[in-house]
Amino acid sequence: MSPKAQRPGPDSSLLKRTGRGRSMADEQSVTNASAVGEERAFLRAIIAGLADLEAGRELPLAEAKARLRLT
């Protein structure tokens, strides 16, 4: 009898459980892995920004644009 793998969701890990509770690896395309990595990096940057705000490390928008040479 072949194991029944669950379909991966957007937040799932690469290890899946079979119908009998055993672990199995799930394949992931290079494109999908890259997109997941970019999404995680983006979320880490957001969390770091929120931590900076809570710690009082903030700049006026005009100063931030000037530092990034956007104006």
Can you describe what's shown?
- By secondary structure, the protein is mostly helical.
- It has a domain of 42 residues.
- Helices cover 45% and strands 8% of the residues.
- The model has no long low-confidence stretch (mean pLDDT 80).
Structural key phrases:
single chain, mainly alpha, 71 residues, 45% helix, 8% strand, Prevent-host-death family protein
Summarize the main sheet.
2 strands, antiparallel
Strand order, largest beta sheet: 1-2
**What are the secondary-structure elements, in order, as H or E?**
EEHH
Average predicted local confidence, pLDDT: 80
**Oligomeric grouping of the chains:** single chain
Estimate percent helicity: 40-55%
Radius of gyration: 20 Å
**Helix run count:** 2
Uncertain stretches of 5 or more adjacent residues: none
Organism: Nitrococcus mobilis Nb-231
Protein name: Prevent-host-death family protein
Region (Disordered): 1-34
Describe the secondary-structure layout:
Elements: E1 15-17, E2 23-25, H1 30-54, H2 61-67
Antiparallel strand pairs: 1-2
Region (Disordered): 1-34
Organism: Nitrococcus mobilis Nb-231
Protein name: Prevent-host-death family protein
